[in-house]
Amino acid sequence: MATGEKRARTSYFSPVEIEILMNAYAEYEYIFKKKRNTVAAAKERELAWQKIADRVNA
Questions:
Q1: Which residues are CB-contacts of 48 (< 8 A; sequence separation ≥ 6)?
Q2: How many other C-beta atoms lie within 10 A of the C-beta of residue 2?
Q3: DSSP notation for 14-55
Q4: Cβ neighbours of residue 32 under 8 Å, at least 6 residues apart?
Q5: Are 25 and 52 in contact (CB under 8 A)?
Q6: Closest CA to 29 of 15, 44, 17, 10
Q7: Could you say which DSSP state residue 3 is in?
Q8: In 3D, which of 14, 29, 37 has the Cα closest to residue 52?
Q9: What's the N-to-C CA distance of the chain in angstroms?
Q10: Can you give the residue ranges of the Myb/SANT-like DNA-binding domain (predicted)?
Q11: CA-CA distance, 11 to 20, in Å (whole number)?
């Protein structure tokens, strides 16, 4: 970086991974938009995020 050039930042997800992520989020969106803030709701959200992560990482 001594020459003053900036390196291009790489993206965190590939276009395919973004598509999978968005489709999976849409499937579980109702869970994330619930207004409950209980332990059971938190576990349900955590499980939904884990299922989404499993799909993206598959």
A1: 28, 31, 32
A2: 4
A3: -HHHHHHHHHHHHHHHHHHT----SHHHHHHHHHHHHHHHHH
A4: 25, 45, 48
A5: yes
A6: 44
A7: T
A8: 29
A9: 36
A10: 9-58
A11: 15
Residue 47 tokens read as 């499980």
Q: Is the dihedral of CA 40, 53, 17, 5 positive or negative?
A: positive
- 21, two tokens: 């992520």
pTM of the entire predicted model: 0.73
Q: Say how many residues make up the chain.
A: 58
pLDDT tens by residue, 5-52 = 888 888 888 999 999 999 999 999 999 898 888 999 999 999 999 999
Torsion of CA 35, 20, 15, 53, to 10 degrees: 70
Structure tokens at 38: 């209980």
